[in-house]
Design goal:
Largest sheet: 2 strands, antiparallel
Oligomer: single chain
Distance between the termini: 59 Å
CATH superfamily: Cytochrome c-like domain
Number of strands: 2
CATH class: Mainly Alpha
Helix content: 55-70%
Shape: globular
Strand content: under 5%
Bound molecules: heme C
Number of helices: 6
CATH topology: Cytochrome Bc1 Complex, Chain D, domain 2
Radius of gyration: 18 Å
Strand order of the largest sheet: 1-2
């Protein structure tokens, strides 16, 4: 049975969880995304390497640029569906890299499509440094 104490603990836990989610949402920004992956990689993102990585095919049919263009500063077209994709570089699209869950979801999907595996933390940090550096 859930007594009052137990309920209190639950309520505090839930409030704490909500607070964490809010703080994460506020903190999400291109710079915060870059820092998150630099921390995971244990090194600074390298924009020059990110640029090369973005334009290369990695054994498959597509590069990142196949769908996002290069430099990815304009609207582009999805390589297979032809659907419009808005500019990926945050200086050209204020919505980009502002939602960690979205970044994670699309890195996962896009890396699988291009490299047939997930991107490493270093690759993500390099790509983010490249995207954030485009002005
Ligand atoms: C087959 C097409 C395709 C390829 C190839 C592709 N992407 Fe994407 N990407 C998309 C689509 C579709 C979305 C989600 C729609 C949108 O956000 O406009 C997306 C979204 C993203 C996002 C989310 C950005 C945000 O915060 O809104 C990132 C980051 C990204 N792609 C990076 C990459 C990288 C890095 C590569 C190469 C490894 C890559 N993409 C290759 C189609 C592609």
């Amino acid at each position: 049975m859930l007594n009052f104490r137990g309920f209190q603990r639950l309520a505090v836990g839930a409030a704490g969880g909500t607070l964490m989610v809010c703080v994460q949402a506020i903190a999400a920004s291109p710079q915060a995304e870059l820092m998150r992956w630099q921390q995971a990689a244990g090194q600074t993102g390298d924009a020059a390497k990110g640029q090369v990585f973005f334009g290369q095919r990695h054994g498959g049919e597509w590069s990142c640029a196949s769908c996002h263009g290069q430099p990815p500063i304009n609207d582009s077209k999805h390589a297979s569906t032809g659907k419009k994709i808005a500019a990926l570089a945050p200086a050209f699209n204020a919505e980009r890299l502002t939602d960690s869950a979205k970044v994670d979801k699309w890195f996962k999907r896009n890396c699988k499509d291009v490299l047939s595996r997930e991107c490493t933390a270093t690759e993500k940090a390099d790509v983010l440094a490249y995207l954030i550096g485009l002005k």
